[in-house]
Design brief:
By secondary structure, this protein is of the alpha/beta class. The chain folds into 2 domains: about 110 residues, no CATH class; about 250 residues, Hexapeptide repeat proteins (UDP N-Acetylglucosamine Acyltransferase, domain 1, 3 Solenoid), CATH 2.160.10. The chain has a 10-stranded mixed sheet, covered by helices on one side. Strands 11-14-17-20-23-26 form a 6-stranded parallel sheet, with no helix packed on it. A hairpin with a 2-residue loop joins strand 2 and strand 3. Helix 1 packs antiparallel against helix 2. The radius of gyration is 21 Å and the shape is globular. The chain starts with 5 loop residues before the first strand and ends with a helix.
Length: about 375
């Protein structure tokens, strides 16, 4: 598969609370991390085109790099192939592709052909399109099979077109319903769907995730790898390795890596006056109008909350937080905050790392030294 180089153009604060560990092509967009999605998209383009077009794409990737917030569409590889050597690709003043030796000859990309991550809310707003656009790629990459009656054991029930439900042979289903009426369902390797669960597409569930008893998931939703999911979820994205294993509602939300939501955690996703939701903007350091009527919880990596935690509409929780206490939490909880209500302090870094290592070891992972230093740098900004 083609190796795809990336650059970060304007930092990462516009996607807060998604941490920098997701930059450089590591952010989950639909079923794939961005780097893998680009590699597969370019591979498909190369297979379908003549040698000259293939050579242009390979030369560009060997001598340039991609903006790590540019999500490929059907036109993206062709746009790269259209570049002359040294000619950068610019959209709305933003560089999408740039050569290592830049020229003074940019090329404006057509607006209709560009998908660019503007905010963390894009991860639930665009998940429907991503799932549909990636459908054939997901089935091939994950080695999925169309579901058959023989693969549905233990009283699992199909609603809608069975041809729109794809499962890996190692996944397990027990007395659940899979509803593909509104969109496809993709279930990866070693996934377990426990009894009483109801799943509605469009939906992607990554490998080794467990959907616990009586869970309700409404699409479009993306559940990354190695998650534990329970309760009621609607139009959410879990980036992976996180737990919401108990009852409680999340809607229009994004949950980072290594998060844990305590039992009966709930998030509002709609204001009582049905007005637009205001969310914290890290670049402006203030709450701004999101323009959205529905927006729930945005939680950064390694953050956790205790039982019965309540989050208001559009709450932004930074990375490395530990949240507890009754009542609604603040709408903005900074990185490495420890506490609840009106009582907060900075989470001690050594204690945070100790907990993170303990959590990750349960899934066979460990924090690399480079990740620790990146987190240490982020923690220093809170002091």
């Amino acid at each position: 598969m083609t190796s795809v180089p990336f650059f970060t153009h304007t930092g990462w604060s516009e996607l807060h609370p998604i941490s920098k560990s997701h930059s450089d092509g590591k952010l989950l967009v639909g079923a794939f991390e961005l780097g893998e999605l680009w590699a597969r998209s370019i591979h498909a383009y190369v297979l379908e085109n003549k040698q000259l077009e293939r050579a242009k794409v390979h030369a560009a990737l060997q001598n340039g790099s991609l903006n790590d917030r540019w999500v490929p569409t059907a036109e993206s590889a062709a746009q790269i192939a259209s570049l002359k050597p040294g000619q950068n690709l610019i959209w709305n003043g933003l560089p999408l592709f740039r050569w290592n030796n830049e020229s003074e000859d940019p090329l404006d990309a057509p607006i209709h052909g560009v998908s660019y991550l503007q905010s963390p809310m894009d991860l639930f707003l665009k998940s429907n399109d991503w799932i549909l656009n990636q459908s054939s790629m997901i089935a091939e990459a994950w080695d999925l099979e169309k579901i058959t009656q023989s693969s549905l054991k233990n009283h699992a029930t199909i609603i809608g077109d069975p041809a729109s439900i794809y499962v890996h042979p190692t996944s397990k289903f027990i007395a659940c319903t899979l509803n593909a009426t509104d969109g496809p369902i993709f279930i990866g390797p070693q996934v377990e769907i426990q009894e009483g669960s109801h799943l509605r597409g469009p939906l992607v569930i990554g490998q080794q995730t467990v959907v616990k008893m009586s869970t309700r998931i409404y699409g479009p939703s993306v559940i990354g790898p190695n998650c534990r999911i329970g309760g009621e979820i609607s139009n959410c994205t879990f980036l992976g390795y996180s737990n919401k294993g108990h009852d409680g509602f999340l809607g229009q939300s994004v949950i980072g890596h290594w998060c844990n939501l305590g039992a009966a955690t709930n998030s509002s996703n709609l204001k009582s006056n049905y007005g637009p939701v205001r969310v914290w903007n890290e670049s402006k350091q203030e709450l701004v109008d999101s323009g959205l009527q529905f927006c729930g919880l945005l939680m950064g990596d390694h953050s956790k909350c205790g039982i019965n935690t309540m989050f208001n509409t559009g709450t932004v929780v930074g990375i490395g937080c530990n949240i507890f206490g009754g009542g609604f939490q603040p709408k903005h909880i900074p990185d490495f905050a420890w506490g609840g209500g009106d009582n907060w302090q900075v989470h001690a870094f050594d204690r945070f790392i100790e907990t993170a290592q303990r959590v990750m070891s349960r899934r066979g992972k460990t924090l690399e030294s480079a990740e620790i230093e990146q987190l240490r740098e982020q923690h220093s900004l809170t002091l």
